[in-house]
Write a structure and sequence with these properties.
Blueprint lengths: L1 H16 L9 H4 L1 E5 L11 E7 L4 E8 L3 E14 L2 E7 L11 E6 L3 E6 L13 E6 L1
Antiparallel strand pairs: 1-2, 1-8, 2-3, 3-4, 4-5, 5-6, 6-7, 7-8
């Protein structure tokens, strides 16, 4: 009986040790370089890539490469806020040449992965890349 309990405890420890730990969403936990990726969503094909760099001065630098339009770089400002118990990220233009985005609810944040869902929408396969965004940390 002790062997069964020991084996069960070891298996549980291994499984929980491999799980992805959700982080508390804050400016500090999203700072750094993120790449928008959709490998886990085979029904969505990116025709380029988007890199996001969240900086400590609340600025976000966005580098977009599109196979048809080429490279572009924009900067904007981000703000995290609580909306009805959910952390929402706002990316707004506060200067000429900046770009605004709709507000997104941060639905997942780990050390290596982040997911956003546009406020007021729900996940469906057809909204990947617009209403739903998935990122991996560089």
């Amino acid at each position: 009986m002790k062997k069964i309990a020991l084996i069960a405890f070891a298996a549980l420890s291994i499984l929980t040790g491999c799980s992805k730990t959700e982080l508390e969403v804050s400016n500090e936990t999203i700072l750094g370089e993120w790449t928008e990726t959709y490998e886990d969503y085979p029904y969505f094909m990116q025709d380029g890539f988007v890199e996001w760099i969240f900086r400590s001065d609340s600025k976000v630098d966005i580098h977009v490469y599109d196979v048809f339009a080429g490279d572009s770089n924009v900067s904007s400002f981000f703000e995290l806020k609580d909306v009805e118990g959910h952390t929402v990220i706002s990316i707004k233009a506060e200067a000429e040449g900046c770009v605004s985005y709709p507000d997104y609810k941060i639905v997942k944040l780990t050390k290596k992965e982040m997911e956003w869902q546009m406020v007021g929408t729900t996940f469906t396969p057809g909204t990947v890349g617009s209403d739903f965004r998935h990122f991996t940390r560089k």
